[in-house]
Amino acid sequence: MPPAYLGEFEQLLLLAILRLGPEAYALEVARELDVRAGRSVSRGALYTSLDRLEDKGLLRWKPAAGTAARSGLPRRLYTVTPAGLTALRASRDTLQRMWRGVEHLLKEPTS
Amino acid sequence: MIDPRLPSAPIVTNEATDPPRLAAWLLRRSLPRTDRGETVIGDLIEEWRSRGTTRGASIHFWRQAVSVAIRYRWRRDPRPAPAVHGERNSGMTLDNLGQDLRYAVRSYVKAPSFALTILFTLALGIGASTAIFSMVNGILLRPLPLPDPDTLIYANEVNATGRERVISIAWPNYLDWRARAQSFSALALTREEPVTLTGVDRAQRLRARRVTGNFFTAVGVAPAIGRNFTDEDDKPNATPVVLVSAGYWQTQMAGDPSALGRVLKLDGTGYTVVGVMPAGFEYLRPYDVFLSMGPVSGSRNLTDRGNHNGFSALGRLKPGVGIATADAELRTIASALEREYPNSNSAVSVRTDRLADRVVDSVRLTLLVLFAAVGFLLLIACVNVANLLIARGAGRQHELAVRAALGGGRWRLAMQLLVESTLVSACGGTLGVLVAAALLRLLVAMAPDGTPRLADVRLDGAALAFAFAAAAVCGIVFGALPAFQASGAGGQHALVRGRSTGFAARSHRLRRGLIAIETALALMLLTGAGLTMRTLQELTHVDTGIRADHLLTARFMLAGDHWTDPRRAAFFDDLLARTAALPGVSRTALAFSLPIDGSNWNSIFTVADKPVPERAKLPSAAFTPVSAGYFETMGMRLIRGRLFDRTETPDSPKVIVINETLARKLWPGEDAVGKRLKQGWPETPDHATKPGEYFAPWREVVGVVADVKFNGVSNETPMQAYLPLVQEPARSVALVVRSAAAPATLAPSIETIVRDLDKDLPLFQVRTMEEMLDASIARERMSMLIFLVFAIVALALASVGLYGVVAHGVTERTHEIGVRIALGAEGRHVLGLVVRQGLSMAVVGTVIGVAGAFALSRWLQALLFGVTATDPATFAAVVATLLAVATIACCIPAWRATRVDPTMALRAE
């Protein structure tokens, strides 16, 4: 089975989860995207994308108990599945192949 | 950071303790019911707290909640959505219905006065219309409680000269019909004939019907015990037999089977009981006993083909024979009889109806008009509910717009609104049924005596179905449509501003239109009430020709062969003398027929000094034997000549007193006194030429009295001829007593006198003359009362509706009014402005209503008396009343508008 195709936002999500390690739940994912990628993402888009990645088998989650700050409501702690890693790798390789030889065209002016 | 719990700390006003509840609710509704929802809400709450629970945090919460809700509602996912999400988009699931219902209940509980107003309006409209529907259903629609009632026909003979006038069937004619007609499997003859039961402790008046031997065959019901009547029982000199009702058998004969064979003495004749009818059997109304024809069928009275003795025919059509065929056949037979017996049968024809139709003939129109009126009332109630719901829809517009924006599909929202209005109309329907039950009891109690089939009037399945159909129509059509309009309108505007002026204007226009309709309907009902009130007023002010106050009347019947002419005359004298001796009694008299009550004896007569007209055109008059002193007792006016007095004896010259109408018709411009006339046909002998022969002497007119109303108060006075009771000693007689005291108090003393004179003589129909007058206009009174109540309710609903719309308008225009006042507008200008705008709706409604009332006047006319259905005075009064009430309804909010404080009004913006 060829690796799943990932959209850009999906790649960002999976990368954010990888970066966050064991504490990757939706709110932190959103913060990570905000801080590191400069992406302010609507929660509607966030949750539906997470669900979609889960449906594709690229993510999985385990429940974690809620804290007082969230009125005791549970969290989902996300991890990237091997299939998710494969898909990320494939996406990265695809991009790198496409980047090769065009870097000089995109050089930013120095002055 | 200041600890907000410290009492000295300033209160930070833009902090909240909970995240926005509506947004959280929204999330729960939009998300799958897994921990997905919980985790999302948890994230958002955590974020809200981390953002400091400020207003900004709340706005963020809202925005994110909305985005989640939208995304989960409409996932633009090319792959099929997982099942757990799938249910979200379908509008109609049990789960959704439950939610909607809960939400609906909550929303009504939150606004109880609104819900109560709607419930009250619906209960009133549905209750009134269901009650009237039950009357219509029980009396007009439900099949008669007889086997296969559609093949039962009712026939009468009619006098076909000029306007067809029902005369009853002559016995020999009936025998010919029966012998010749092929359309019927049985053709019976019957008449109502109350009888007196004697030979028991205390004489009793029984409800009785005389029937031919085939009557119960035609009806299709056989006695439960004993034998049916047979054709043998019709024959003269057959043993008189009687069938008793189950009720009579139980109560008067203790349900004793050996009662068969017992002899009942009825009107002096012994009748053998041969059977008991099944329990529950009624022929149109309850009877105690059914009498066989034998005892009367040989009498001279019945065998004379010219005598119509109160009989009508009941026929059972053969299978496959239609009523038109039967009618045509009877008419053919009648024509043949007309040729065969020109002396008695000229211009005598037949009228045939379905039994069910004939029974209710007298009330059909009244009921249908009232049903139409209550339909208007229901419509007004519906319009009022629609109005309230639109007003509410405008208030909820923000909520609806938010929900629509969040992907609450139009269908889904419409479902919610439908559930809400269905809920309220179901409750309204239930309350309406309770109101209907109470109203129906009242209506039945109020119903005039003689209203047919009242026993069939009850709240049944059909009435319940009607109530809930009315409720459903009310709720769905008049509730959901305006609310749906609200749900679809101007969503984005509502989100931006909370209140959209465009939508408000549109809903306001709709409400103004509804108010105009409501006013128009109310005006039509008011017109009906006004016209029926005028009718009643006319009826109560009709000159009856008598002084009805302080008069007591009571009937008795001297039946049986032992009441010979001299004995009857002696009895009359005794009774009059003893009654006159009672304290307080000023005058007393006897009469065969009473005013208002109708004539018991109509007859052809012949005039001595005029050429005899062709037979069909012989004049007919109400012949009324009366005692001396009758005219004085009734307070009638003598116009010419003299009244009867003690000089009249059985052997004195035969005399007669006629009424004005007869004098005018027969001797226009002449003095009627001294003329001679004779009851009966020209060839009727004026003296007995052989024993037992019927004869009628020539009588000389000695006086002319003023007309009295004879058949009710609204019918024209017929030609009337009064005979001295001593010369024409009747058997069925009414006693009339004029007293200084309240006449009803005399009844016991008179009963005692009659019992002393003859213990076997029950008095019946003991009534004051005023009661008779009241009873004669009872139907009109009831129509008037019902119309009046409807009109008052309609007026109240319409004015409350008008008030609501004007008040709402004032609230919405507070700013504008404030500006006007700030710019120097005076109170009266503001008042005028608001009232003018409010009244414009009422005026439009009035114009429509007047047009509608004119259009409908044709149907109302038949219920009216002394006033036309387009009576300008009534219309003017009704319009004035309506506009006056409308003005008051507008003035209250208008007055409030003048009190608008301009500074407050302007600051509000």
Defining traits:
heterodimer, A: 111 residues, Arc Repressor Mutant, subunit A, two-stranded antiparallel ribbon, 2 strands, 11% strand, B: 24 strands, disordered N terminus
Write the layout of secondary structure elements.
The complex is a heterodimer of chains A (111) and B (909).
Chain A: H1 8-20, H2 26-37, H3 43-55, E1 59-64, E2 75-80, H4 82-99
Antiparallel strand pairs in A: 1-2
Helix pairs in contact in A: 1-2
Chain B: H1 21-30, H2 35-50, H3 55-73, H4 83-86, H5 94-110, H6 112-141, E1 152-159, E2 165-167, H7 171-180, E3 184-192, E4 195-198, E5 204-206, E6 208-211, H8 215-219, E7 225-226, E8 241-244, H9 246-252, E9 263-266, E10 269-276, E11 289-291, H10 294-297, H11 300-303, E12 312-317, H12 323-340, H13 342-345, E13 348-354, H14 355-395, H15 397-405, H16 410-446, H17 461-488, H18 491-497, H19 501-540, E14 551-557, H20 565-580, E15 585-591, E16 602-607, E17 620-626, H21 630-634, E18 638-641, E19 655-659, H22 660-666, E20 676-679, E21 699-705, E22 720-724, E23 732-739, H23 747-757, E24 764-768, H24 769-776, H25 778-812, H26 814-822, H27 827-861, H28 872-898, H29 902-907
Parallel strand pairs in B: 6-11, 8-10, 17-22, 19-21
Antiparallel strand pairs in B: 1-2, 1-12, 1-13, 3-6, 3-12, 4-5, 4-9, 7-10, 8-11, 9-10, 14-23, 14-24, 15-23, 16-17, 16-20, 18-21, 19-22, 20-21
